[in-house]
């Protein structure tokens, strides 16, 4: 496998390993090898191969953002005055350097960006919006959608080519 390997080149065993790791990234290697029917040595080799090829970018905890950030949680829809490379770079730079921005996606349609923002309170949110306008002066509109309640959150697993959902209800 090389860095250019596509998902279609993953074996069924690779997909099984990725699926197991998506649901439990802290699984001991001996438990993982048991579930896959491999020796610990072969499991480590396959794991290292998936890491080197970029299928596994790292290991992290799935944090309940709504529980962690109990202040002011909102979604921002951002429309730009002009779709320029410079504006997109400015947004990316802002998002990557602003801890209050939990998630950001680039959209098709009326608004270009959707950001999930978690601040301590409304005063911190106002400060964030001020910084956003200062950093990206070509914002045409900014629409704020405060989160009243998270009804469902899901983790996606595409390892087998289909969408499997792990649901969390509140």
Automatic annotation (TrEMBL):
<feature type="domain" description="HTH asnC-type">
    <location>
        <begin position="10"/>
        <end position="73"/>
    </location>
</feature>
<dbReference type="GO" id="GO:0043565">
    <property type="term" value="F:sequence-specific DNA binding"/>
</dbReference>
<dbReference type="GO" id="GO:0043200">
    <property type="term" value="P:response to amino acid"/>
</dbReference>
<protein>
    <submittedName>
        <fullName>ArsR family transcriptional regulator</fullName>
    </submittedName>
</protein>
<dbReference type="GO" id="GO:0005829">
    <property type="term" value="C:cytosol"/>
</dbReference>
<keyword id="KW-0804">Transcription</keyword>
<dbReference type="InterPro" id="IPR019887">
    <property type="entry name" value="Tscrpt_reg_AsnC/Lrp_C"/>
</dbReference>
<dbReference type="InterPro" id="IPR036388">
    <property type="entry name" value="WH-like_DNA-bd_sf"/>
</dbReference>
<keyword id="KW-0238">DNA-binding</keyword>
<dbReference type="Pfam" id="PF01037">
    <property type="entry name" value="AsnC_trans_reg"/>
</dbReference>
<dbReference type="InterPro" id="IPR000485">
    <property type="entry name" value="AsnC-type_HTH_dom"/>
</dbReference>
<dbReference type="InterPro" id="IPR036390">
    <property type="entry name" value="WH_DNA-bd_sf"/>
</dbReference>
<keyword id="KW-0805">Transcription regulation</keyword>
<dbReference type="InterPro" id="IPR019888">
    <property type="entry name" value="Tscrpt_reg_AsnC-like"/>
</dbReference>
<dbReference type="Pfam" id="PF13412">
    <property type="entry name" value="HTH_24"/>
</dbReference>
């Amino acid at each position: 496998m090389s860095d250019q390997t596509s998902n279609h080149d993953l074996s069924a065993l690779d997909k099984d390993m990725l699926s197991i790791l998506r649901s439990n990234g802290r699984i001991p290697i001996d438990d993982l090898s048991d579930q896959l029917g491999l020796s610990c040595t072969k499991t480590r080799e396959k794991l290292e191969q998936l890491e080197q090829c970029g299928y596994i970018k790292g290991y992290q905890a799935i944090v309940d953002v709504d529980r962690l950030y109990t202040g002011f949680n909102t979604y921002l829809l951002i429309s730009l005055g002009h779709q320029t490379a410079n504006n997109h770079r400015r947004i990316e730079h802002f998002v990557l350097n602003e801890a209050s921005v939990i998630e950001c996606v680039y959209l098709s349609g009326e608004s270009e960006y959707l950001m999930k923002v978690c601040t301590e309170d409304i005063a911190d949110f106002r400060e964030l919006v001020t910084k956003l306008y200062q950093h990206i002066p070509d914002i045409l509109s900014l629409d704020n959608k405060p989160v009243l309640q998270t009804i469902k959150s899901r983790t996606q697993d595409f390892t087998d080519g289909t969408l499997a959902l792990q649901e969390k209800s509140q």
